[in-house]
Amino acid sequence: MNKVSIPKSFRVKSFGCQMNVYDGERMAELLGAQGMDAAGEGEDADLVVLNTCHIREKAAEKVYSDIGRLRREDGSSPLIAVAGCVAQAEGEEIMKRAKDVRMVVGPQAYHRLPEMIGKASAGERVTDTDMPAEAKFGALPARRKRAPSAFLTVQEGCDKFCTYCVVPYTRGAEISRPFSDLIDEAQKLVEQGAREITLLGQNVNAWTGEDAKGRDIGLDGLVRELAKLPDLARVRYTTSHPNDMTDALIAAHSEVDKLMPYLHLPVQAGSDPILAAMNRSHTAESYIRLIERVREARPDIAISGDFIVGFPGETDADFEATMQMVDTIRYAAAFSFKYSPRPGTPAATMDDQIAVEVMDERLQRLQAAITRDQLAFNRASVGKTCQVLVERKGRREGQWLGKTPWLQSAHFTGDYAVGDLVEVELLEAGPNSLSARVC
Ligand code: SAH
Ligand code: SF4
Ligand code: F3S
């Protein structure tokens, strides 16, 4: 057996969604609390955690090539842990296929990493893909991350079982974290300098809990409570499911100033038969109505979405319905993907899988329409004044980059610091960013 000494330095690489990034931050904090140091850019690390994503094929393949690349010139490897959703879905296979991997840890078990590192350092190969009933979050150290914009996972898992999706299998059943834990964590983040908090969950708007007085509340209630933190300027949440978009949450968009005018509400497709085959439990029409109501509550809101092209059985007419949906909604931003059959999901074995050339062509058309609307949305913002949260320095001298309330990237020059909220006028628009002038 290949004996390795206890690691002194570590690196965590995250590949997935924002929740995966959040998990990566928490793992880094956990390893830091064990006395290990984060390796700097380009520095060799004793321990590397690959925090993986399983949502589409390429994501999983990337993990194997990354493992190969971690081998050093002298033939040795760091202590490698594969974490995240690929670990959960393919733990055994990883252990068989990649001999350099010494730990496999699922997204609900990473609070046990320190124990696992002890065993792996003594030469064992350890797998933990349990979904333990004990609270992972309670076992993690307090937040230490310093950033003007921070993530906070409030809800995990998914009970929706869309037929194409691995998340219900890799993340398990829906759970909501308790209200008081979330307020505590948010307070910690604000103390460390967060001006903006993005609440995360695979179905974030399904969050439920009890407030300090024992009353049942939903995500709108949580947002309202967080908005009371004096030094917190902005609240966002993602990702929502259309079926959990309550009237109260819609109302919060018109009533809570700190709730930013942005809603990521994936629709996936514009055709009802495809939506039914996807098990989305909403129709194209009900989605459009919902967006209308959100826009009534907050007319300037930026709507974003996700699309899948080439779901099994998608005809030309079905795809045209998706294009029609884009034309109707006019998204401020949207992500679109080629359907990727995921092992173990119902759609993977459905008849009429779509040829890749057809998917490529559809994706191109869809993305062109989305880019057109993104640019139109940004152009329509020109001339507006708004606050920008300064996130980092730009490439040019004196240039800063930040986000508008509508989550657009804006760049401007001046004498500022990360975390400042700066009043600007938006000047010129591209599809992915805007230039601005400080007012
Ligand atoms: N919980 C969120 C996000 C899930 S994953 C939601 O329900 O919307 C993020 C996006 O990945 C999905 O919205 C979907 O567009 C895409 N996706 C998920 N599974 C996929 C698959 N098998 N092939 C292609 N895209 C997929
Ligand atoms: Fe996946 Fe559907 Fe759940 Fe979103 S709602 S995580 S797409 S199963
Ligand atoms: Fe990927 Fe898992 Fe997130 S599969 S998208 S890292 S929930």
Q: What is the CATH superfamily of the largest domain?
A: tm_1862 like domain
The CATH class of the largest domain is identified as Alpha Beta
- Average residue-wise pLDDT: 95
Number of helices: 12
Key words describing this protein structure:
alpha/beta, binds S-adenosyl-L-homocysteine, OB fold (Dihydrolipoamide Acetyltransferase, E2P), Rossmann fold, 33% helix, binds iron/sulfur cluster, five-stranded mixed beta barrel, 12 helices, 21 strands, 439 residues, 23% strand
Can you offer a commentary on this structure?
This protein is of the alpha/beta class and 439 residues long. Helix content is 33%, strand content 23%. The protein has three domains: 127 residues, 3-Layer(aba) Sandwich (Rossmann fold); 238 residues, tm_1862 like domain (pyruvate-formate lyase- activating enzyme, Alpha-Beta Horseshoe), CATH 3.80.30.20; 54 residues, OB fold (Dihydrolipoamide Acetyltransferase, E2P) (Beta Barrel), CATH 2.40.50. The longest helix is centred in the last third of the chain and has 26 residues. The protein binds S-adenosyl-L-homocysteine, iron/sulfur cluster and FE3-S4 cluster. FE3-S4 cluster binds next to helix 1, helix 3 and helix 5.
